[in-house]
Design goal:
- This protein is α/β, with parallel strands linked by helices.
- The chain has 2 domains: 208 residues, 3-Layer(aba) Sandwich (Rossmann fold), CATH 3.40.50.720; 37 residues, no CATH class.
- 48% of the residues lie in helices and 14% in strands.
- The chain is built from 8 helices and 7 strands.
- Strands 3-2-1-4-5-6-7 form a 7-stranded parallel β-sheet, sandwiched between helices.
- Helix 3 packs parallel to helix 4, helix 4 packs parallel to helix 5 and helix 6 packs across helix 7.
- It is globular and about 55 Å long.
- The chain starts with 5 loop residues before the first strand and ends in a 7-residue tail after the last strand.
- The chain binds nicotinamide-adenine-dinucleotide.
- Nicotinamide-adenine-dinucleotide binds next to helix 1, helix 4 and helix 6.
Length: 258
């Protein structure tokens, strides 16, 4: 389905991005992992290469336009095309509005909204020339509904869904689809660390936080697994999904259905 496709994934040294990279590599795509963190990136690339997959690693800070341009130039030099761009890099900061540092707010927007804008801008001419492209922006249910304490994250994720729609419209006649993946709570170190903090503040353990705070919010009573998000990314990048564009695609165990 995605065999031989050239796939560039930002923020993919671990978590969801890496799992997406693994899934694409298993399906014989040519995967370029990238991240601001060099060491885990190299480790991930080495592990996958040892398994015989076609994987490269390029260090790239998505807050730096020149860095994104350099990464894209490098992969175009090697493969001559970019078929799938996955804007996945992300961070979190939780604070009430009045305590939310402006520089943190700006940083969240830079990583999760401006970064995807720049990467899309750079990839678009190649995708237009190929008359083929798939862009997946990792949004969140935070891009669809509000969450107290998450001004930066929520604004960035709502914004990236707007960007997704504009890019989908501009890419539609050129064989380019652009969609936003909107996961609910996924079982990743990022989410577990946040829940550990909550557990500590309540003097209970992580399992209790899951049972008492998180599961009651999720009709399926569970955290999503990274493999499920990766499978959705594969589907959206495949020919079967060529009619889906400009959409926030929600996978949240029923959270936003309530
Ligand atoms: P993660 O922390 O495991 O992965 C994020 C990656 O982004 C890290 O490897 C990090 O080093 C990288 N990164 C941070 N700043 C960067 C920068 N400036 N340039 C390049 N890379 C940078 O988190 P995750 O849970 O795997 O999240 C991946 C994406 O999925 C994020 O966009 C996140 O908002 C989104 N998401 C996650 C969940 C969840 O439950 N985990 C839910 C909804 C959406």
């Amino acid at each position: 389905m995605v065999e031989d496709k050239v796939v560039f994934i930002t923020g993919s040294a671990g978590g969801i991005g890496l799992e997406i990279g693994i899934r694409f590599a298993e399906q014989k795509a040519k995967v370029i992992l990238s991240d601001i963190k060099e060491e885990p990136l190299q480790e991930a690339v080495n592990n996958l290469k040892e398994k015989g997959y076609s994987v490269d690693g390029i260090k790239c800070d998505v807050t730096d336009e020149e860095d994104i341009q350099r990464a894209m130039d490098e992969l175009i030099d090697k493969y001559g095309r970019v078929d799938v761009l996955i804007n996945n890099a992300g961070i979190q900061h939780v604070a009430n509005l009045e305590d939310f540092p402006t520089e943190k707010y700006e940083l969240l927007l830079k990583i999760m909204l401006v970064g995807p804008f720049i990467a899309t801008k750079i990839a678009f001419p190649y995708m237009k020339k190929q008359n083929f492209g798939r862009i997946l922006n990792m949004a969140s249910i935070n891009g669809v509904i509000g969450f107290a304490g998450k001004a930066g994250y929520n604004s960035a994720k709502h914004g990236v869904i707007g960007l997704t729609k504009v890019a989908a419209l501009e890419g539609a006649e050129h064989g380019i689809t652009v969609n936003a993946i909107c996961p609910g709570y996924v079982d990743t170190p990022l989410v577990r660390n946040q829940l550990e903090d909550l557990a500590k503040s309540r003097g209970i353990d992580l399992e209790k936080v899951l049972e008492e705070v998180i599961y009651p919010l999720v009709p399926q009573n569970r955290l999503l697994q990274v493999e499920e998000i990766a499978d959705l990314a594969i589907f959206l990048a495949s020919d079967s999904a060529k009619g889906i564009t400009g959409q926030p695609v929600i996978m949240d165990g029923g959270y936003t259905a309530q």
